[in-house]
Structures are given as C-alpha cells and as structure tokens.
Specification:
This protein is 4% helix and 42% strand. The strands form 8 sheets. The chain has a 4-stranded antiparallel β-sheet with strand order 1-28-27-26, with no helix packed on it. It has a single domain, classed as Methylamine Dehydrogenase, Chain H (7 Propeller). The C terminus is likely disordered. The chain has 2 helices and 30 strands. A hairpin with a 4-residue loop joins strand 23 and strand 24. The chain is mainly beta.
Length: 387
C-alpha cells in the first residue's frame, strides 16, 4: 500500500532550495578556487564549527605569538617567537614554503590593511616593520616607547595605532613613517586596540578595567566604558559598526552599543577567564569565545544560552581565536605551540538542540518536518569535509 504522506514529504523535500545540495563534491576541492564560506543566509547556525580538522606545529621549541587572516582567506599569517612569519594556506592548512619573512626579533603583533596591500609587524623591541604586497620591507618605524615591549597593533590604510605595555596609545603615519600624536587617558597598561571597520574611531582596552573609544584625528577620548571588574583582554568591533564586544579577566563577555553605553546589550558569564573573542564574518549576531581552559563557546548576541560548547580533552589555554574571512574555518592559538583549525564535520544533516548542545544524526525527513515538540529547537547544519 502506498503511503501518500511520505510521498508528499519527499516531493516537498526535493522542492526545497537547500544551498548545500549545490556544493561541489569533495573530489573537486583541489581544482576549485576559494569557496565563499558555504554560508546559509537563512540559518545562522551554519556558522558552528565543531571539529578539529587540522593542526599545525612549526617545531617543538617555537611558539606562536600572533596571527592574522588575509582579507580573502587565502592565507593565515602567523608570527613566531623565533622571529619568523609563516604563511599557512587557508585551504590545505599547510605552510607555504615559498612565502616567509624573517627577523632578528620575535614578532609580538601583526596587522594588515583592509585591501591587504600593507602588512605591519611589531617585534619584541617595539619596532614596526612595514611590508608591501610582495613581502618587501618598505619601512621601519622605531619604537615609540623605548622602555616597554609592544602589546598590540591596529591599522587602516594609512594610519597605525600601537599599544605598548604602558598607559598611552601612539598614532603613526605609514607614509611619513613617523609618530603623529599620543592618545592619553588610561590609568594602567594597555592590553588591546582596534580600529573601527568603517569610521575613524579607535577602541582600546586596558588593565584599568576600562574600554575607551578615541577620535585619532584630534586625539580626543569620545567615551569610556567601565563595566568590567578586571583587566580587559580583548575587544572586537561588530560587523554593523555599532556593536563593541569585550572580554575580561573577570570571566565575563559583554556586548555594548556605542550609541548608548549606559548599559550593555547582553552579558555572559564563563567559568574561567575569557581570553579570546571573534565575530563570524557573515552572520552579524554570531561570535565565538575561548577561555583559559581551552573551551570554545559559540554564542548569539541576543541569547544568553550558548549555541555550542566545545571542551578540550586536555586543558590547554587558548590565547586567541579567529574566524576565517570565508567563514569556513576557525583557528585557535594555544599555549602548546600549535594552531588548531576547526571546521564543520562531513556533509550530513543534523539535529541541533539548544537544550543539550548535542549534534545528533537523524532521519533527513524528520529534520525538514520536525515534530511539534522539537520545532522550536531543531534546525539543519550543512557541513563540509575540508579533508
């Protein structure tokens, strides 16, 4: 006897416009160019990357100090304690032996211009090395502070803001290769600094528990955010340009709207110190955090409950983490001298339950037509096997 209900479900399933059905087979991955994130604009949960697909270690004695993706996601630039900058292919996660920069000092910070025409590297002595697209050294700026090591860098097309382990920010001109002005106002050593993605604004975080936003054109402080109870570890601007995400040693992550900073939009409490944050490049409400025990948590801006929590079998501190600009991978920098690359697992349909945070493989028909009790939480996570 024909089950007409099942037949109707199959017909509707074939009519659905699932973007994953148009993905090329894995045997063609080596032949195609860089793919654009496999994003599903209608489902933000496709940004969850839950499986370690590759690990890279330079050698047993050399550790990674900083990292930065190129804007097209083709390479990950990683600065080493041995004074080398390695280029890791964003598709194969292997080192490109034909591209490398060497220095006599360990690299502490790295930044690239939005169009990737300029790369700046800050070394242990506080010097800022300027390279062009062909990896040729075009300038060398002396340290603005001779006594303190460099902590962080940020760059737009022509201006650099450097943060040393003191209270002041230094605005530098890339064309003239000289210091323009000093931004003063913090009460303790700086931890991080970030240029606004579209506006002439600079945000900085410090050990004085405050986050400050500056206008570097005149050197004035625009606003100060004092909502954390301990050192600020990382700050990141949101894709919309209005949100500012912060994490602190007080085990909290907070989201602010700079148009009204009297209170945070949302706040999340972790079990350990939050050491890294990163926004997803396509979904403006999705971000990931990492703590001192190596736990990676995916969150949504307007929800208190996490999307997914990934705990490492061995407790390893994550110093930083970055989404690829294509949204297809997540790289973490850990204290065990290696880089871990996360991606989606093999191409399957999954049931993602927010209550249990467990990925369970089920019947595809049940995923498209969930039961009434599961309809609030069920969704489909398309995945790709990057191996």
């Amino acid at each position: 006897m024909i089950n007409y209900e099942s037949v109707q479900k199959i017909k509707l399933l074939n009519m659905l416009d699932d973007s994953y059905a148009h993905w090329p087979d894995t045997i063609f991955h080596k032949l195609q160019g860089q793919y654009a994130g496999w994003q599903d604009s209608q489902d933000y949960k496709t940004s969850v990357l839950n499986e370690v697909v590759s690990q890279y270690r330079y050698n047993e004695k050399t550790s990674f100090n900083c990292m930065k993706w190129l804007s097209d996601g083709s390479y990950l630039l990683a600065g080493l304690s041995s004074g080398e900058l390695v280029f890791i292919n964003g598709h194969t996660f292997q080192k490109d032996n034909q591209r490398q920069i060497r220095s006599d000092e360990a690299f502490r910070a790295i930044a690239t211009s939005p169009d990737d025409t300029t790369t700046i590297l800050g070394d242990k002595r506080g010097r800022i090395n300027v390279y062009n697209r062909d990896l040729q050294l075009t300038g060398l700026m002396p340290p603005s502070n001779q006594e303190q090591p460099l902590k962080d860098l940020t760059l737009n097309n022509h201006k650099v803001v450097s943060a040393y382990e003191d209270k002041d920010l230094y605005l530098l001109d890339l064309v003239k290769l000289q210091e323009e002005r000093v931004l003063s106002g913090h009460g303790n050593d700086l931890q991080c600094v970030r240029y606004h993605p579209t506006q002439c604004l600079v945000a900085s975080g410090s050990k004085d528990h405050s986050v400050r936003v500056w206008d570097p054109r005149v050197g004035d402080e625009i606003l100060s955010i004092n909502k954390h109870n301990n050192n600020i570890n990382k700050i990141e601007w949101g894709l919309n340009g209005d949100w500012l995400l912060t994490c602190s040693k007080d085990q909290s992550t907070k989201l602010f709207d700079i148009r009204n900073c009297s209170r945070e939009i949302n706040s999340w409490k972790d079990t350990q110190e939050v050491t890294g944050i990163t926004w997803h490049p396509f979904h403006p409400s999705v971000f990931a955090t990492a703590n001192a025990e190596g736990t990676i948590t995916y969150r949504l801006a307007h929800q208190n409950k996490e999307l997914l929590k990934i705990e490492r079998p061995v407790k390893t501190q994550v110093f930083d983490l970055l989404f690829s600009p294509l949204g297809d991978s997540l790289c973490t920098l850990t204290n065990d001298k290696k880089l871990d690359f996360y991606a989606r697992n093999e191409l399957k349909r999954f049931d993602f339950t927010l209550e249990t945070n467990v990925l369970q493989e089920e019947d595809p028909l049940n995923q498209v037509f969930p039961s009434q009790s599961q309809q609030q939480y069920s969704t489909i996570i398309p995945s790709v096997n990057v191996n």
